[in-house]
Design goal:
With 1801 residues, the chain is mainly beta.
């Protein structure tokens, strides 16, 4: 039947070419129950298999708008190509037929805005009025439009020519280029593309000699041809489409071959941007086929759309989509043949596109003559794995030929398709259709299709097992026993061994690697007989076995697996039956019946509970129930929103998805098991009931079923989460002792088929855990992107104060969450919790009652201990709330006695012995300095006092009457209301008048009472007001700190309040007013408290709070204000003594106090005990490392410093090292000292390790005290050292550095003694020196001495010595390596001192990574710390290699080749651009100049040099390049030409006095030194050129005449290296420009001519060359140490400067420093703010900061000093111009000065 239209004229297709409706079903066709299967059999049609995911595929998108165009002549008009601009506007290119005006076809360009409104139109008609055809368009980042077309130029005898045009965004033509390729023949362009640089690529063919494949690159500025590639495979080679990949390579697709013989085959070729072929792939199937379109996704995957003749299948032309990897590897293939078996093909060349999610949309046409139609538009979308996501067609109103020829994706996900449609009376109309993006919300479902099942079936069993989806039984016209397995990896089905008993509506579940088929019906109708049969399938052997039968025969049951057992509930034949099968025991058990009938209901399990939904009970139901198998209990849930039966229920990520079903189809609803809520999700594509489903690899699969029209579906739908399907696992590094930290790792893997964007980790704690800080992690913090199959591990380092669950979650795209839960044991960081000690019972047995006095307190019963106090000697006083006594525990004997009360709750008298006086409901107790005991006699509404001397009791406050009768009266006359907490401070008694919501104060000297907080009205009004105007709400405990601030446990306000002793204002110091526990290590004012009761302040001001109903003691740190757990877990009860206090259960903790030893006491009221937490030593740790990045073979040192900040000694302090993730640590000798040690209060100890690692990982440095308390030093993350320990020899290091602290101008001497303590000799012991933190080496005067290598026999040692200087504080490392692998290191911490300098030493040459291409006569330049080597002679044609060396990584990279290969060229860098000038290529000298941009890896051509030459020298001053000398076949030249890089122009300068080639040149002080070379013979001449005077001067000749040398300038010296003079040289000679003198230096490692060199910092790099017999790739480096003399004492500045300098300015006088004049000097003066400091910065011509100074302004705001002409390292500044910038201190100015030499010659 016809499909339901998504929009007028459009149909939707889903697999196999069968049209299926979208949206709802025909209500008239649906009955309350479906008709019997035999009735439906006559309607059977095969459909595809649907797969649903939460990713990116959706049903076809809706039409946003359509624009058509019909030219005035009502002739054929066709849109061929489309491109979308960055602003969303759309450019369409095609053709209009203007035969009506005598012009044939014209090129037509129309631009629309994103809403479809026409912005402008342009047409182009060739000069001859012949056919002109627009084919494609491309748009660059600036919105410029490039059009490819063909123009018939028969008017000039050309046939068709290519036509390439560039238009700006407004429609103005910028340029137009025609290409007549070969022989004036038919040249047909097809497609166009533009890369990120704006370069344009067009493809097409030329008909002569046969059809050849042409690819041309055009320059963006003027359309000039950059390169042109021709490919000839057969007689008909025709590229159709071009695309640019993410790396800038070019991909071209089309077909090649012959019209006959082997026929045409598809071809795709990849080129570099420079035109080099990367690879070619062809597709030969025996049938004629060819590609017509190509697109490349963000991963470099290539999608080629083509068509193929398939007469062998009785079909016509089929459509196919083939993908390739970036390297050309074939990936997946999708094909399409329409139901009519007609012509299904392509139109146009821009017919495939990829979106941001790398899904592919392909367009073309299908022929539907079977529907009375012609060609229809065909648009199909595939996900990156090749699964069809949707397909749609379009048939115009005339039902003629309608084809789609071009497609483009908008940035918003919209799709624009262009082509033509047939319109009656108008021929073909140009058509543009835009489809709106279909947004799948984060976390929604995204349905897709798997390949169809081989067998159509309804009501099968569906089960995921061993990575495959099994479909078992079911029915078509008959009941089935067949089994088919689907492999998601290959998207294929396999037939398996049939089930012995055929059945339908059965249960299938997987347990222990086997599939169990249970019950079901044996006839296709929904009537008995039902079966009890249970059969088990083993996928390993592909066999079935019979198991114990189900007690009750039934079908249409709900089932789930919980705890390895299969629960089967309800069904026809046992609607309320609950029966449980144990596969391990092969037994069944019957449970209590379900509360309602479950027939045709669905079930699944989440977190150990079973969930059941829907069903049929006289109609479809909305049932939603939870069944707890452990308890056998049922819970009614929120009703399912849509009633239904025969649904699918599956669980994924703690949510249940109820899918389809009778009365619901195609509805999908999600149930949140945690929130008990429902959400509607994306529907199935079609109605579906009696379908069954399962979860496999994170996807939901739904298979089979029917829709009241089609009885048996072979469709399989699958669904994943948007952004990928996350598989999450968590590992915990525990168990750990109290005080340790644990590492938790969460591994997240994307097991879906789509990329997961913005994967972000988080953690949350369950009740009672209490994570504490500092928490390290997550590492990495996220967000990250996970492609399919990728995984990432997030790590946290944390500690927990209780036992419970911590949930580690992962969020995708901000909405979809997957999680994993870990149970953490009790973890406490002792560095944070001084009360992380052991808990014990000191009074009470846990039994409520009274069993006498004079016995040990731990054997005495107590009855509700609440108040508690400790006297000055440590005796403990306990107020028993329900025992109506106050008991005392002697600190000396441990025996208990009664000191007040008789056990009777009443009042009998005062003035009598306290032990015969009745008290009632005793609460708080306190002692004054004299030892008098005060008791809150709560239920008697009195405060009683027991005299310390006489033992007599009296009343000090209260009358016994419950009430309030005012303040300012005697306390004994004042009424109270349940007084509870009391405290004594400075002669005053403070009372919490509980039911009066007040704090009362009694001045004991006068006896008067007053209110100090509270109004008498219970509640909370505000903070920051006078305490007497603030409401309290049933206050409990009260305490005061050392300065008299009053703290109140404001019970029912769930806060601790503080009344300032000075201002009387009240504030909250802990609590928020809520009771919800929200964690540890957070500000106390943000923490929930649950009825604070007792409170206590220790001597340091730390606040302890008893949370009465939360069963915890909390501690608020006085220094930080953060809150932590000190005791209790939050769960009431008792779980023993001798355990960490933070793991102990408490039961209504009430009173708190502390003795002089720091022991914390807690009255555990309903636990009927008094508990004590003994304080441990409080250890804090810090970790430092000598290095986190070291070279292979080296070692690092780790120092763990442990400090006891507590008052008690820490014994048995022992260090340890552990690896939490595989670092492969190698440790030399363990910790030093090894421990254990004892740390008294305040003492510290540093433990040191020397170690290396063979892999990355995390190492934890821990210390254990007393065998129990352990803290974690900072973990080491990543970046480890590769090192191998040589076991036969063992080296140890001892370092002595003198002086310990150096003053200015002094030097350090370091002596590293290396001893071999092993049993074998250590060979090749070589010392070295490094800097591991900011010491800053100024200069190394000497060392190491001896330099090594040395051999150390067993028991022998040697001492290496260095003399050096540093410029800052930090660590200097010294190590020795044996045989290149075994290393030991020692590290010194250096003081800060500025040093003087010594003479420059000879360069010491070391080998570096060799150049990839051995060659000579190359050029070098340095950009951004990288050495670029360009061109050169490698003995083969080309000479175009460009390679880059990174000294930081000692590695090479190959870059874009030099367009004009050459050797003997000049290479320089200006402003980050590298220029290659002149040279030769075997055919003579060249004048070409080409420029390379390292940022884009591209070359461009610049103005040619006036004189062609090779073996020249080039240098740069400012922005001008000087080309000097060389030769061009006539011998050496004197020519000097200057190139201005800004204007791209050349000028001629004064020639060199001496003609020569093979010379080298360098710039010093703004002048050019031309050195060496040859002109008939080698020379050592040195001539210097001054650009200011355009003149040359001859200087002292180089000692060794040579050519083919290289020269560089480092510090103050020119180095001339290598070359030849009748033979290759290794000679190095140094020239001092200031002295005009040469000296000989250490030679190169080997003779070499034609080498190149570069300088980075103070390091010289020599590259390549010729060693006399072969080209070399050798690279050597030499560090040249700075050279300078100590500056002379500064003379006072010229006084006139201070007079002349203006406000806010600086003045330099004179502004020229003559280096040749010993008396020359510069002075600088500044005027700014009095007492200010001015920062002076000096920059050279390259804008490099060379010197920083400071001027301290005097009281008049003036200061001056001399400039010594040196840089920050004390080195002489080179000749040239310098900028001086001044700032701060009220000064902002800049000036210039120059350094010159006026020496006469």
């Amino acid at each position: 039947m016809p499909a339901k239209a998504m929009f007028p004229g459009v149909m939707a297709l889903f697999g196999g070419g069968v049209q299926a409706p979208l949206g709802g079903y025909n209500a008239e066709a649906v009955s309350t129950r479906r008709p019997p299967l035999p009735v439906l059999a006559a309607l059977a049609t095969v459909l595809g298999v649907l797969v649903a995911g939460i990713a990116s595929a959706t049903p076809p998108p809706p039409l946003a708008w359509e624009q058509t165009y019909n030219s005035p002549g009502n002739l054929d008009d066709q849109a061929n190509g489309v491109a979308i601009a960055p602003d969303g506007s759309i450019v369409v290119v095609g053709t209009e037929d203007r035969t009506d005006v005598g012009r044939s076809n014209d090129i037509l360009i129309r631009k629309y805005d994103s809403a479809g409104s026409l912005q402008w139109t342009r047409s182009s008609n060739g000069p001859g009025n012949f056919g002109d055809y627009g084919l494609g368009s491309a748009i660059d980042a600036g919105g410029n439009i490039f059009v490819v077309a063909n123009s018939d130029r028969s008017d000039i005898g050309h046939s068709y020519d290519w036509l390439i045009m560039k238009w700006d965004a407004g429609g103005t033509l910028q340029w137009s280029v025609t290409c007549n390729l070969v022989g004036n023949s038919w040249d047909n362009a097809c497609d166009i593309a533009v890369d990120a640089s704006g370069s344009v690529y067009a493809v097409g063919m030329s008909a002569v000699p046969g059809r050849d494949w042409h690819v041309i690159k055009f320059a963006p500025l003027d359309g000039a041809i950059v390169w042109h590639d021709v490919y000839n495979y057969g007689s008909n080679d025709y590229p159709q489409s071009v695309a640019v990949d993410p790396s800038g390579d070019i991909v071209v697709a089309g077909y090649v071959g012959d019209w006959s013989g082997a026929g045409l085959i598809s071809a795709v070729r990849k080129y570099t941007a420079g035109g080099d072929l990367v690879w070619t792939m062809t597709r030969s199937t025996g049938n004629e086929n060819g590609y017509g379109g190509v697109a490349v996704d963000s991963t470099g995957t290539i999608a080629c759309l083509g068509s193929e003749i398939r007469g062998d299948l009785g079909q016509s032309r089929n459509w196919f989509l083939q993908t390739y990897g970036a390297t050309g590897a074939t990936q997946w293939l999708a094909t399409y043949n329409s139901p009519a078996n007609g012509d299904d093909g392509l139109e146009g060349n821009r017919n495939v596109a990829v979106d941001a999610e790398n899904s592919i949309v392909a367009v073309g046409y299908e022929t539907r003559t079977d529907l009375g139609q012609g060609k229809n538009w065909l648009v199909r979308r595939y996900n990156p794995a090749g699964v069809l996501q949707w397909s749609m067609t379009y048939d115009g109103a005339a039902h003629g030929d309608d084809t789609a020829g071009g497609v483009a994706y908008g940035a918003d996900g919209s799709i624009v398709v262009v082509g033509y449609e047939a319109v009656a009376g108008q021929g073909k109309n140009w058509a543009v259709r835009k489809y709106a993006p279909v947004v799948v919300p984060d976390g929604d479902l995204d349905w897709g299709r798997a390949v169809d099942m081989p067998t159509d079936r309804v009501s099968p069993g569906v089960c995921g097992l061993s990575g495959k989806l099994y479909v078992v039984g079911g029915a078509d016209a008959a009941v089935l026993g067949t089994v088919e397995a689907y492999d998601p990896a290959s998207n294929t089905w396999t037939t398996k061994a049939s089930m012995p008993t055929a059945r339908v509506r059965l249960v299938t579940e997987a347990v222990g690697g086997k599939l169990y088929a249970i019950g079901g019906g044996t006839v296709s109708s929904e009537t008995p007989p039902y079966t009890t049969v249970v059969e088990a399938y083993d996928p390993a052997t592909n066999t079935w076995t019979t198991r114990a039968g189900m007690p009750t025969a039934r079908d249409a049951c709900a089932s789930a697996v919980v705890g390895g057992k299969i629960y089967v509930i309800g069904g026809r034949g046992g609607a309320r039956k609950v029966e449980v099968y144990d596969p391990a025991a092969n037994t069944w058990a019957t449970r209590a019946d379900a509360p309602v009938d479950f027939v045709c209901a669905s079930g699944t399990a989440v977190n150990g509970k079973m969930y059941l939904f829907g069903g049929y009970v006289a109609g479809n139901t909305q049932y939603a129930y939870e069944y707890n198998p452990d308890a056998g209990s049922w819970r009614t849930l929120t009703n399912m929103p849509t009633a239904g039966s025969d649904t699918v229920a599956v669980a994924l990520n703690d949510r249940v998805y109820v899918i389809g079903g009778d009365g619901r189809n195609p509805t999908v609803e999600e149930y949140d098991t945690n929130a008990n809520t429902w959400t509607t999700k994306a529907s199935l594509y079609s109605d579906r009931i009696d379908t069954y489903g399962a979860v496999l690899n994170g996807k939901i699969y739904v298979a089979g079923g029917f829709d009241f029209v089609t009885p048996y579906f072979a469709e399989v739908d699958a669904v994943t989460y948007r952004g990928g399907v996350m598989d999450v696992s968590t590992e915990v590094s525990g168990p750990a002792l109290r005080g340790q930290w644990i590492t938790v790792t969460m591994t997240v893997t994307n097991v879906g088929a789509e990329a997961a964007q913005n994967v972000t980790p988080a953690l949350a704690t369950g009740p009672g855990v209490g994570l504490v800080g500092p928490i390290s992690g997550p590492v990495p913090p996220g967000p990250v992107t996970l492609n399919p199959g990728d995984g990432v591990t997030f790590a946290w380092t944390c500690s927990a104060v209780g036992v419970g669950n911590v949930t580690f979650t992962m969020t995708v795209m901000g909405g979809v969450t997957a999680s994993s839960t870990a149970t953490l044991g009790s973890r406490v960081s002792a560095s944070i919790y001084p009360w992380g000690g052991t808990i014990t019972t000191v009074a009470g047995t846990g039994s409520k009652g009274y069993n006498g006095d004079g016995i040990p307190a731990t054997t005495a019963q107590t009855n509700g201990p609440e108040g508690f106090a400790v006297d000055s000697v440590g005796n403990r006083y306990i107020a028993e709330r329900f025992g109506n006594r106050v008991r005392k525990v002697s600190v000396a004997s441990g025996l208990i006695s009664t000191v007040a009360g008789t056990g009777t709750g009443a009042y009998n008298s005062d003035g009598i012995s306290a032990t015969v006086a009745n008290v009632s409901g005793t609460d708080g107790v306190a002692l004054d300095p004299a030892g008098n005991l005060f008791i809150a006699d709560r239920d008697n509404n009195r405060i009683r006092k027991v005299d310390a001397t006489t033992g007599l009791i009296s009343t000090v406050a209260g009358t016994g009457t419950y009430g309030y009768n005012g303040d300012g009266i005697l306390a004994t006359a004042a009424q109270l209301r349940y007084p509870s907490g009391i405290a004594i401070f400075s002669g005053n008694l403070y009372i919490t008048d509980n039911a009066s919501h007040r704090i009362r104060k009694v001045v004991l000297a006068s006896g008067l009472i007053s209110t100090v907080a509270g109004t008498g009205t219970g509640g909370y009004n505000t903070d920051g007001v006078a305490a007497t105007t603030a409401q309290l709400n049933w206050p409990n405990g009260v305490a005061l700190d050392a300065v008299g601030n009053l703290y109140i446990a404001d019970g029912q306000n769930h806060r601790v309040r503080k009344v300032d002793a000075v201002s009387g204002l009240i504030s909250t110091v802990a609590g928020t007013g809520t009771t919800v526990y929200n964690g540890e290590g957070i500000p106390a004012t943000t923490a929930g408290l649950n009825v604070p009761c007792g409170i206590h302040l220790d001597p340091a001001g730390n606040l302890y709070v008893g949370e009465y109903f939360a069963n915890r003691i909390r501690r608020v740190d006085a220094a930080t204000g953060l809150i932590y757990i000190a005791a209790g877990t939050g769960t009431e009860g008792y779980n023993g003594d001798g355990i960490p206090a933070t793991t102990a259960l408490l039961h209504l903790p009430a009173g708190i106090d502390q003795d002089a030893s720091g022991n914390l006491y807690i009255t555990d009221r309903d636990g009927h005990r008094v508990r004590r937490v003994a304080p441990s030593a409080w250890l804090a740790t810090s970790l430092s490392l000598s290095s986190t990045v070291v070279s292979p073979g080296q070692w690092i040192q780790a120092w763990l410093t442990v400090t006891n900040t507590g008052s008690n000694a820490a014994t048995g302090v022992t260090p340890a090292l552990q690896v939490n993730t595989p670092a492969g640590l190698v440790v030399l000798g363990g910790a030093t000292p090894a421990g254990p040690v004892t740390l008294n209060g305040g003492a510290s100890q540093t433990f040191a390790w020397t170690l290396s690692a063979t892999a990355g990982g995390v190492a934890s440095f821990t210390v254990t005290a007393g065998g129990m308390d352990s803290m974690l030093g900072s973990p080491i993350l990543g970046r480890r050292v590769a090192g191998v320990v040589v076991t036969a020899a063992r080296l140890t290091a001892n370092l002595v550095v003198a002086p310990g602290a150096a003053g200015t101008g002094q030097w350090f001497t370091a002596r590293l003694t290396i001893s071999n303590t092993g049993a074998a000799a250590a060979n090749g012991v070589v010392p070295s020196m490094g800097f591991t933190s900011g010491a800053g080496l100024v200069v190394l005067e000497s060392g190491p001495l001896p330099p090594g290598p040395v051999t150390l026999g067993p028991g022998s040692s040697t001492t290496f010595t260095w003399t050096y200087s540093v410029s800052g504080n930090g660590m200097v490392g010294f190590n020795a390596t044996a045989s290149g692998t075994d290393a030991v290191m020692a590290v010194a911490v250096q003081g800060s001192a500025t040093r003087t300098f010594v003479a420059t030493q000879d360069p010491l040459w070391t080998p570096e990574a060799p150049m990839p291409t051995a060659r000579r006569d190359a050029g070098t330049a340095v950009v951004g710390g990288t050495v670029y080597v360009v061109g050169g002679n490698d003995g083969a044609a080309g000479y175009a290699r460009t390679e880059a060396y990174d000294p930081a990584t000692d590695s090479w990279a190959t870059l874009a080749s030099l367009p004009t290969g050459r050797y003997g060229l000049g290479v320089v860098a200006v402003g980050g651009t590298i220029y290659a000038i002149g040279g030769g290529a075997g055919g003579g000298a060249l004048s070409v100049v080409e420029a390379y941009d390292p940022a884009t890896n591209t070359w461009t051509t610049r103005a040619a040099m006036p004189t062609a030459r090779e073996y020249l020298a080039t240098v740069v001053i400012g922005g001008t390049i000087y080309a000097i000398g060389g030769e061009n076949g006539t011998g050496g030249l004197t020519i000097v030409e200057a190139y201005d890089t800004a204007t791209n122009t050349w000028t001629t300068k004064a020639g060199m006095p001496t003609a020569r080639e093979g010379l080298s040149a360098v710039v010093v002080g703004g002048r050019i030194y031309a050195i060496g070379g040859a002109n008939g013979g080698d020379t050592g001449v040195v001539e210097v050129y001054d650009p200011a005077t355009d003149s040359w001067t001859t200087l002292a000749s180089m000692p060794t005449a040579r050519s083919g040398l290289t020269v560089v300038f480092v510090n103050v010296t020119i180095y001339a290296m290598g070359g030849s003079n009748g033979g290759v040289l290794s000679t190095v000679e140094a020239y001092d420009p200031a002295a005009d003198a040469w000296t000989t230096k250490a030679s190169l490692p080997a003779g070499c001519e034609g080498l190149a060199a570069a300088v980075i910092g103070n390091t010289i790099y020599t590259v390549g060359g010729w060693d006399g017999s072969a080209f070399v790739s050798t690279v050597h480096a030499a560090y040249v140490t700075p050279s300078s003399l100590a500056p002379p004492p500064s003379a006072p500045p010229a006084p006139p400067l201070l007079v002349k300098v203006k406000p806010k300015s600086i003045l330099i006088g004179p502004n020229v420093l003559d280096r040749s004049d010993p008396g020359s000097r510069l002075s600088i003066a500044a005027r700014g703010k009095a007492g200010g400091r001015v920062t002076i910065e000096i920059f050279d011509e390259g804008v490099r900061l060379v010197r920083t100074l400071h001027l301290d302004l005097d009281g008049d705001g003036l200061a001056a000093m001399d400039l010594d002409g040196r840089d920050d390292h004390g080195k002489h500044l080179a000749y040239g111009l310098y900028w001086v910038l001044a700032r701060d201190g009220g000064v902002s100015d800049r000036k210039q000065f120059m350094i010159v030499s006026k020496r006469k010659r």
